[in-house]
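User: Can you predict the 3D structure for this chain?
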Amino acid sequence: MEVKVGIQHVNREIVLESKDSAADVEKAFHAVVDGGGGVFSLTDEHGRKVLIPVDRIAYVDIGEENVRRVGFGSV
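Assistant: Here is the predicted structure, written as structure tokens:
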């Protein structure tokens, strides 16, 4: 699923594909914000980690969990 994170005073957003579910990403974000943590951590589907300072996050856009369809029936 696709996760977009907007950063304050930056024109581009951080976009990554994650294997985590939408609920897991949301739970991790709330845990960091509520716990007063300083860094929101996301891992993409290739295992690369992105660390974002919580006080600079403008928004988090969590996309739909999409199942990849195979064959002609997906049209």
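The chain has a mean pLDDT of 87. Helices lie at 22-34.
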